[in-house]
């Protein structure tokens, strides 16, 4: 290394050292903040989040038992000792158990006729697996249907039908979509939903009435 290069390195180091001396307080504060944030993140993901998840699952366990027994009020509001699904959803919203609790709460509120509140909780949860995802969308469709917003309900049913193709939920979602479209006066869309059901699920029980319904809806179109 030449003398000039050595002198250049020394000057560069001196400049950095001088910059540090001039900004020592801010640099030290930034370093402390970084260490604190790093430590807090480690604690949260290593200890706090897993413990909160376990706590949420423990709280939800009793509510799920009441739900299986069809004791909706106890499942929703708790029994005075264990939380209900609503409280778990509100308090542990960032956990998997809290997410599931929102789904339970929405489904219970729907059955109890509290459709607006049910929509709030159903919109507050999401699922990666297609079965729960399709079920959540179908329940939203049921809420909108009960509120008389048949077009939105039908669109949700179609979304649910397309979320997962299976012989159990698919035909039901398409049938509900047809009824909702018809209620909204959208007979062409209703016919399309029924024809999709005939094509995709030819052996489904719902297909037995599809041809008759198609005839009815075509007659409605002709009368316009």
Fold and architecture overview:
The chain is mostly helical. The chain has 2 domains: 1-126, no CATH class; 137-224, Tetratricopeptide repeat domain (Serine Threonine Protein Phosphatase 5, Tetratricopeptide repeat, Alpha Horseshoe). It has helices at residues 3-22, 24-68, 72-77, 85-91, 96-111, 115-123, 130-146, 150-163, 169-183, 187-200, 210-223. Helix 2 (24-68) crosses helix 5. The radius of gyration is 29 Å and the shape is extended. It starts with a helix and ends with a helix.
Topology:
Blueprint: H1 3-22, H2 24-68, H3 72-77, H4 85-91, H5 96-111, H6 115-123, H7 130-146, H8 150-163, H9 169-183, H10 187-200, H11 210-223
Helix pairs in contact: 2-5, 4-5, 5-6, 5-7, 6-7, 7-8, 8-9, 9-10, 10-11
Order of helices and strands: HHHHHHHHHHH
Mean pLDDT: 82
State the helical fraction. Answer: over 70%
Radius of gyration, in Å, reads 29 Å
Can you tell me the residue ranges where pLDDT is under 50 for at least 5 consecutive residues? 9-13, 36-49
Strand content: under 5%
Write out key terms for the chains shown.
224 residues, mainly alpha, Serine Threonine Protein Phosphatase 5, Tetratricopeptide repeat
Give a nutshell description of this structure:
The chain has 224 residues and is an all-alpha fold. It contains eleven helices and no strands. The chain has two domains: 1-126, no CATH class; 137-224, Alpha Horseshoe (Serine Threonine Protein Phosphatase 5, Tetratricopeptide repeat).
């Amino acid at each position: 290394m030449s003398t000039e290069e050595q002198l250049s390195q020394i000057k560069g180091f001196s400049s950095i050292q001088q910059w540090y001396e001039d900004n020592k307080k801010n640099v030290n504060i930034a370093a402390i903040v970084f260490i604190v944030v790093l430590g807090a993140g480690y604690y949260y993901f290593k200890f706090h989040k897993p413990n909160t998840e376990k706590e949420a699952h423990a709280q939800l366990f009793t509510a799920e038992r009441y739900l299986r027994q069809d004791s909706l009020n106890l499942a929703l509001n708790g029994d005075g000792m264990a939380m209900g699904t609503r409280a778990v959803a509100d308090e542990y919203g960032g956990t998997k158990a809290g997410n599931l609790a929102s789904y339970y709460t929405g489904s219970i509120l729907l059955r109890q006729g509290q459709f607006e509140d049910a929509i709030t909780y159903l919109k507050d949860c999401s699922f990666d697996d297609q079965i729960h995802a399709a079920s959540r969308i179908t329940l939203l469709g049921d809420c909108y249907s009960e509120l008389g917003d048949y077009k939105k309900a039908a669109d949700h049913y179609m979304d649910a039908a397309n979320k997962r193709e299976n012989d159990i939920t698919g035909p039901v979602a398409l049938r509900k979509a047809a009824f909702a479209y018809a209620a909204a006066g959208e007979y062409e869309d209703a016919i399309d939903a029924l024809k999709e059901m005939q094509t995709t699920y030819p052996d489904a029980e719902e297909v037995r009435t599809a041809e008759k319904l198609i005839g009815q809806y075509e007659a409605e179109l002709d009368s316009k």
